[in-house]
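Researcher: We're reviewing a set of sequences before deciding which ones to prioritize for further study. For each one, I'd like a predicted 3D structure that I can look through quickly. This is Thiol reductase thioredoxin. If possible, include the structure in token form so it fits the rest of the review sheet.
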Amino acid sequence: MKTVSELGFWQRMAETRGEVILFFSSAGCHSCRIWRRLLKNLEDNRGGLQVWEIDAGIDMGITQEFEVYHLPALFMFHNGQYQRPIQVEARVHALEQWLDAHADLPPEELP
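Model: Here's the predicted structure for Thiol reductase thioredoxin, in token form for your review sheet.
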């Protein structure tokens, strides 16, 4: 799992191939700690998947850009293109099913 900031974010994302889950979190968020463990496990076991974490309390510009109102918040990118927000229960199997079901859908516009 990479910790990223809003500085140079869009350029890095445009150059990235494969699946990226963008994970907005905060140090004091209990649900974020649960998701962090789940996402690390998924990243270790799913080839081609990267997880990028953004601290919503520090990088407020990009947090507002994605219209994040609650934490954790997850968004899917594929080959540098925004796909959609991820809304699924915090279970590896449920997230894997969601990723597989949405893998071939066309990109959406950012929030």
